[in-house]
Amino acid sequence: MYIVTAKEMYEVDRYAMEEIGISGSILMESAGRAIAERMKPLIGTTDRILVLCGSGNNGGDGYVVARTLLNEGYDVAAVQVGRNLTADAAMHQQVYDRLGGEVMDVEADTFQMALAKADIIVDAMLGLGVRGKLRSPYTETVQAVNDSDALVFAIDLPSGVPADDAVEFEEAIQADYTFIIEAPKPSAFIQKTAPYYGEWKTVSIGLPAAYLSRQAGARTWTEQDVKRSFPIRQPFSHKGTNGKGFLIGGGIEMPGSVTMSSMAALRAGAGLLTVGTLRQVIPSVLSHLAEATFTSLDEENGVIVDTEDLDVSAYDAIVVGMGMGRGESTAALTKRVLEEAEVPVLLDADGLYHIKSDLEILRNRQAPTVLTPHPGEMAMLLDMKVPELLERPFELARKFAIVHQVHLVLKGTYTIITAPDGSQIVNTTGNPGLGKGGSGDVLSGILLAMLMQHEDPMEAIANGVYVHGKAADVLVEDAHSQQDLLATDLMKGLAKVFRNISD
């Protein structure tokens, strides 16, 4: 499923109308009728339905919804909120009016009375084009709808919600359901704006799919994508062909981080795994993991430091960072790995802090580099506050990945994966049970295994993030709650996820 910005969606609309020859009124007809069909299983024949129509395309869609439901015997009234209707919207208003539909003015007393009695409200006011603070009469109408007890359906976007980011966002319709036209917009995945959508589904209206796919800069990653791209174990494969990984981390105070990453890497299919850690940490990891081999790293006061004789040439992928500490000598080790390794290197946790003052080192690498920050770590790399980051995660992630030529995994409810060329994938698996210490360590281990088994780094990362979230979903569905789920439990969920992928 593709994700489009407002600019991309306008271009697809333009192409459909000017190049293909589909008129705007036909697109409105298709949208309104499709949305009305989606609504019918959710409403009753005796419900009083109020459709709030703006002056643009969204309003035209609303009049088609109102007409379709009215023609099938539903109790429907329309409210004109905006002024100066576009030609296509005005045409659909006239057709609705000629069919006997009622149109009331938003500022009339009859609107307030109808709103108080409404069981269903359809928000067809602003849609894609809104930017900045709402003005009258939209401000008052949004507040009145949010104060009502009616079930609220929004068309494309809840009015007031921007399509792309949340920088200028202040107030919006709180929808129970949103019927998104053709493709979701970035705000459906942004923490500040996503809750306003309620439950959402996409509605196809006949826009040219091939052109939309070429315009879209982002997409979601589905089970079908995973099954299409997931590596198949060959009959004559062996531990060497399944990848030799190196995982560096685990100070004396955080041995569990490297333990969880190591367990996850092997459970996710790594053929061989070497753990580089402190000598005194090795027994702790070994007690949970007999399959790994170990390299003892130099230390100072229980923290890993630069180890000059460390050879990174024998590995197929490397992970650096978890539980290492953030001192200068520790950072020197991370930077040396980045400079010397000619294979994919993933940086997580403390490893991200190590490169904060020397980001140029990332651009100088020839092999893929993967960064896996949570919002706090990403804000640190960008020298900004977390709320500012969360208002523009797609834009900021894209700029960082392009400038520094990295694969960026911005973790969150909807993890955003960005390639060095700026293309983006959004993961939708996972649940709040992952909101505990150690979940990121497990993800890093899974990604290590994936990077060694895929030719395409983006497919490797997307599959790894999908599998990580899906394991949590499977466990919550079958045996755990979101409260008691632990990061170490995820290893148990991986087996079922992998079996389902191979079916």
From TrEMBL:
Positions of K(+) binding: 58, 123, 159
Amino acids binding AMP: 411-415, 440
Details of cofactor binding: Binds 1 potassium ion per subunit.
InterPro entries: Carbohydrate_kinase_pred_CS (IPR017953), CARKD (IPR000631), Nnr (IPR030677), Rhodanese-like_dom (IPR001763), Ribokinase-like (IPR029056), YjeF_N_dom (IPR004443), YjeF_N_dom_sf (IPR036652)
Superkingdom assignment: Bacteria
Catalytic activity: (6R)-NADPHX = (6S)-NADPHX; (6S)-NADHX + ADP = AMP + phosphate + NADH + H(+); (6R)-NADHX = (6S)-NADHX; (6S)-NADPHX + ADP = AMP + phosphate + NADPH + H(+)
CDD domains, per the entry: YXKO-related (cd01171)
Cofactor(s) required, per the database record: K(+); Mg(2+)
Domain (YjeF N-terminal) ranges: 9-213
Keywords, ordered alphabetically: ATP-binding, Isomerase, Lyase, Metal-binding, Multifunctional enzyme, NAD, NADP, Nucleotide-binding, Potassium
Residues annotated as domain YjeF C-terminal: 222-501
Enzyme Commission number, as recorded: 4.2.1.136, 5.1.99.6
Pfam families: Carb_kinase, YjeF_N
Binding site for (6S)-NADPHX: 57-61, 127-133, 138, 156, 323, 374, 441
Domain Rhodanese per the UniProt entry, residue ranges: 33-95
Subunit structure: Homotetramer.
Function, in words: Catalyzes the dehydration of the S-form of NAD(P)HX at the expense of ADP, which is converted to AMP. Together with NAD(P)HX epimerase, which catalyzes the epimerization of the S- and R-forms, the enzyme allows the repair of both epimers of NAD(P)HX, a damaged form of NAD(P)H that is a result of enzymatic or heat-dependent hydration.
PANTHER family: ATP-DEPENDENT (S)-NAD(P)H-HYDRATE DEHYDRATASE, ATP-DEPENDENT (S)-NAD(P)H-HYDRATE DEHYDRATASE FAMILY MEMBER
Homology family: Belongs to the NnrE/AIBP family.
Protein name as it appears in the record: Bifunctional NAD(P)H-hydrate repair enzyme
